[in-house]
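Consider a protein example.
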Amino acid sequence: MLRVETNMDVVVSKLATKMSEIDIDKMTHLQASSLLAMIRKRVHVEGRASDGAPIGNYSKHYRDRIRPKYGRKEGSKVVLSLTRAMENGMVLTPITNGTGIAYLTKELLQRAKWQEKRACYGSRPIWSPTTEERDMVMKIGQKYIDEHFNQL
């Protein structure tokens, strides 16, 4: 007869304690702030929707007459930024079990939703994270957890 002894109960107890000590707010704040920066760059600088394709093109009149009045000279690609209100209005906000991304006002949220529904932009998601952005959020979380467990 073979007798096996383990310290499995001690290891599981230590792991459970370590898991309960993870600062979810700190981790999700790091994830959300990184995601916010990526979305701002993608939408308001690169002019890309959630599928990676360009959001669209401004009409000649809007591009040549309206945008220059605000110092905007990006050309015809839609970057959803005229006064910078939308990108500056995207903020981090505490939510249950973490940190989220929100708009400062209902008006800005409505404007963001309206942009996604515009047929001239293809009526498709603009603000949803891309696969690359979601992967980055997961990697940040995994790194945070790995670093936490390396402190054993």
About this structure: The mean pLDDT is 91. DSSP finds six helices and two strands in the chain.
